[in-house]
Design goal:
The complex is a heterodimer of chains A (about 500) and B (about 300). Chain A is mainly alpha-helical. Helix content of chain A is about 75%, strand content about 0%. Chain A is built from 17 helices and no strands. In chain A, helix 5 packs antiparallel against helix 8 and helix 6 packs antiparallel against helix 7. By secondary structure, chain B is an alpha/beta fold. In chain B, the strands form three sheets. Chain B has a six-stranded mixed β-sheet with strand order 6-7-8-3-9-10, with helices on both faces. In chain B, strand 9 (about 200-205) and strand 10 (about 210-215) form a beta hairpin. The two termini of chain B are about 35 Å apart. The chains are: A mainly alpha (about 500), B alpha/beta (about 300). At the A-B interface, helix 1 and helix 2 of A face strand 1, strand 2, strand 5, helix 2 and helix 3 of B.
């Protein structure tokens, strides 16, 4: 191998690395903040294990010392990683893409997918750096008895995946196009969610180290990984969509991803349920996707009302192709149709599953969850489409992108107002009994109350019909307008602006 | 290659930052974009650089819409913002290398491009310095170097001369001359109007989001000023001339400047011709009769009201 070929190979390898990764890692290794955070973590781990050893006395030689010290060190590592990595990644990205300043990186020719992938790879590398730095302390706990190496590595693996998932969530939150005040609110909500995830992780890891890796563990782990992979993938495609140009077909990759994941995990859940003779995998699938589709209804009504020229240029000419594109291409009407159809298909699939496998365990729970989720989606549809209706007719100065906010305000009011009115008017000793659960009508999350589902469904059904009929002219108009256009931007310009200087550039010389 | 800004509008709530702005320019032209603070210059430039989206209208670069196909437009535009690079923990070379990678420049070609851009902007000796340690003028050079990495056909420069010392300003002017001679279309905003007049082929004057005046610098200077100043020197009778000029219609102001008389005429070139004919007819032996051209600063002051939104 000649020196020239070695150099060429080195250069081509360097070119394949995502530029964002190169930049982020260069900055991270030169950053005093990152170095100080890492050294502090190591110092805290060292001090913690030191104090534990000194304070344990004779119990250090018992059968529980390794497990206890591992959980203590893992708790410290995880709390730092779950806060530091997402916060570092998210805050930097939010600063680069705030409402008043957009980093010049975003006007280079780099693809949005590469930007998000680069940010994520840098976050993963940073997480790996933190975990590997703490690895000697974790391995040391093996020598104190009570824990085995597979449990240690499995726990670290779980923690690592959770931190990466939180980092992807932080990337998404950082990119939500809202002002600084809303961003801070979203960041605080995210931190609260990360706190909850931290406690779930600690609970899961304590189960791993105390009970070992049994059949239940692998079932739970598989479910957890499927959910995390889906969430990471979903946040990834949504983050990419958020930094794609507004005129592009932003919704297409998101809807394709969700639909593919829905299909794949649905098939896997049915197969898993058949093997286990249990409906719980289908139940997890139902809960996961109905929540996603309920939120998708809110997202859909906040999309561009009319697809732009660029989207319409890629609409197929055939009727079938056009119909398919309507569901998957950017646009509020198409998004609403897609989310609603997916809700119905999911409920239909669950019904079919119960009919096909009536003897599987947890059938009643599945039917109950189906009703609950179906009701929740029905109310979400009502609130979102009522919000869209109000925005078009009463708040036409509010941008389409804020329709979700009107819907969310309606949801908050509709969920609480009947209950508060009832409370003020009819409060008595029996107030908290199930009989008075009827006052929760309008609350999408109250469908777990089986006694009043007929009332909830009646109100929701009539409301949905009314609001659907009122939205129908708008919907038909958008369907009719969804046609292929072949006009280039330059052709669409009617008046050519006057040149500020005619002739050669030397006109003023 | 043509840049067309077509009925561009950008509203922030009730504020119309850019209100129906249209103009165009071509390769090799340097166009000055002039206006008071808050006139809509930066907003227009950010839209052209694909950083912002307009409320309505479009900007086309070689027929490519910055609204519909910003990805394609980004290959064609280099943007120098009014804010300077503030990336921490990065050297000049690392900064340029990152952006070169982001513009998909690969391997040895990337290294050569960075080297030539560093040389062109005079950054070769500073390549290993940290960005935060640079002076304002040097940061401005880094910003220009970054904008040139992908060899764009159009350069959009927002206040590149702000805060620069005289030497740095002269050097920037020279760089712009070279870039213009290379065929780049350059849109540049600045408050230093005398300098703009020297380097620009054309100018667009904007206020409250609307274009007040646009055209070649020569045309603007020719037509932009409502009053013309004529310097007159005669062989004898300066005092008499001074008195007579004060009584002449359309002459609004007369000043004696050394051996010359400066007369401000409210009229066009035709009125200047009439004045000279009249002087000769009345027997004055005219040694010098010079029409003093208005400068961009005067035109700017004439057409703008200094109003902000």
């Amino acid at each position: 191998m000649t020196a020239e070929s070695v150099l060429k190979e080195k250069v081509s390898l360097g070119d394949r690395v995502n530029p964002i990764v190169v930049k982020e890692l260069r900055q991270a290794v030169q950053s005093r903040f990152v170095i100080a955070a890492l050294l502090t973590l190591l110092l805290v781990q060292l001090v913690a294990i030191g104090i534990y050893i000194l304070a344990s006395g004779p119990s250090l030689f018992g059968f529980d010392a390794g497990r206890q010290s591992f959980l203590m060190l893992f708790g410290i590592l995880q709390v730092v990683a779950i806060i530091f990595v997402p916060l570092y990644t998210g805050a930097r990205l939010a600063a680069e893409r705030s409402d008043i300043n957009v980093d010049l990186l975003f006007i280079t020719t780099i693809k949005p997918r590469s930007v998000i992938a680069g940010k994520m790879f840098a976050a993963i590398t940073l997480t790996a750096l933190i975990y590997s730095a703490c690895m000697p302390f974790m391995a040391f706990t093996y020598f104190l008895r009570g824990i085995d190496l597979p449990s240690i590595f499995m726990s670290l693996g779980i923690g690592f995946v959770v931190v990466v998932a939180c980092a992807q969530g932080a990337v998404f939150v950082a990119l939500i196009p809202v002002n600084r005040a809303f961003k801070i609110i979203f960041a605080l909500i995210s931190l609260a969610v990360f706190g909850l995830i931290y406690f779930w992780t600690m609970f899961g890891v304590s189960v791993v180290v105390s009970r070992g890796l049994g059949r239940d563990f692998w079932q739970a782990l598989t479910t957890m990984y499927v959910v995390i992979c889906f969430m990471v993938g979903l946040f990834f495609v949504m983050s990419v969509a958020l930094i794609m140009p507004a005129a592009s077909n932003r919704a297409l990759p998101v809807r394709l991803f969700i639909t593919s994941a829905w299909l794949l995990t649905g098939v896997a859940a049915v197969i898993g349920g058949s093997i286990e003779k249990d409906h719980w995998p289908v139940m997890v699938w139902l809960l996961m996707f109905e929540i996603v589709f309920a939120l998708a209804i809110f997202a859909a009504v906040s999309e561009r009302d009319q697809p732009g020229r660029r989207v319409l240029r890629s609409v197929p000419r055939s009727l079938l192709g056009r119909a398919r594109a309507f569901f998957f291409f950017s646009g509020a009407a198409g998004g609403l149709a897609w989310a609603s159809v997916m809700v119905v298909l999911t409920l239909g699939a669950v019904d079919a599953c119960v009919d096909l496998f009536p003897t599987h365990r947890n059938a009643n729970d599945l039917i109950n969850s189906e009703k609950w989720m179906g009701g929740m989606c029905l109310y979400f549809f009502c609130y979102a489409t009522t919000g869209a209706l109000l925005r078009r007719h009463l708040f036409s100065r509010v941008g389409t992108e804020l329709t979700w906010l009107i819907g969310a305000i309606l949801l908050a009011v509709g969920s609480l107002a009947p209950f508060l009115i009832g409370y003020i008017m009819f409060f008595n000793d029996q107030w908290w009994s199930d009989d008075l659960g009827a006052w929760w009508v309008g609350n999408p999350f109250a469908w777990s109350n089986k006694a009043h589902r007929v009332l909830y469904a009646s109100v929701g059904g009539v409301w949905a019909m009314l609001v659907a009929v009122m939205n129908l002219p708008w919907f038909i108009d958008r369907c009719e307008g969804f046609k292929a256009q072949r006009v280039a931007a330059s052709d669409a310009i009617e008046s050519v602006p006057r040149a500020v200087a005619s002739g050669s550039p030397s006109a003023t010389d | 290659m043509k840049v067309q800004i077509v009925n561009l509008k950008k509203h922030f709530g009730a504020t119309r930052a850019v209100d129906d702005v249209s103009f165009s320019f071509s390769s090799g032209q340097v166009v000055g974009f002039v206006g008071p603070n808050g006139a809509g210059k930066t907003t227009t430039m950010r839209i052209l650089a694909t950083l912002d989206e307009p409320t309505a209208g479009d900007a086309l670069i070689d027929g490519v819409s910055v609204v519909e196909e910003p990805e394609r437009a980004r290959h064609l535009v280099g943007y120098v913002p009014d804010s300077l690079p503030t990336h921490r923990d990065m050297s000049v070379h690392e900064y340029l290398d990152f952006f070169a990678r982001a513009y998909s420049l690969k391997g040895l070609h990337r290294a050569k491009v960075i080297e030539s851009v560093e040389e062109f902007t005079g950054l070769t000796g500073l390549r290993d310095k940290m960005l935060v340690a640079l002076s304002k003028g040097m940061k401005q050079r880094v910003s220009l170097a970054r904008a040139l990495l992908h060899d764009p056909a159009v350069l959009v420069m927002d206040e590149p001369a702000a805060g620069l010392d005289p030497r740095a300003r002269i050097e920037l002017r020279e760089l712009l001359r070279v870039l213009s001679s290379q065929g780049k279309a350059i849109l540049i905003s600045s408050h230093i109007l005398t300098e703009l007049a020297e380097i620009c082929h054309a100018a667009v004057i904007i206020e409250r989001g609307s274009v007040l005046m646009a055209g070649a610098i020569g045309d603007l200077l020719e037509n932009g000023a409502s009053r013309r100043t004529v310097l007159i020197r005669v062989r004898d009778g300066m005092e008499r001339l001074h008195r007579e000029l004060l009584e002449t219609p359309r002459i609004e102001k007369v000043n004696v400047v050394g051996e010359e008389i400066a007369a401000e005429i409210n009229g066009d070139e035709e009125d200047c011709c009439d004045l000279l004919t009249g002087l000769v007819g009345r027997g004055y032996r005219v040694v010098e009769f010079k029409l003093q051209r208005a400068n961009l600063e005067e035109i700017f002051m004439n057409v703008t009201k200094g109003a902000v939104q």
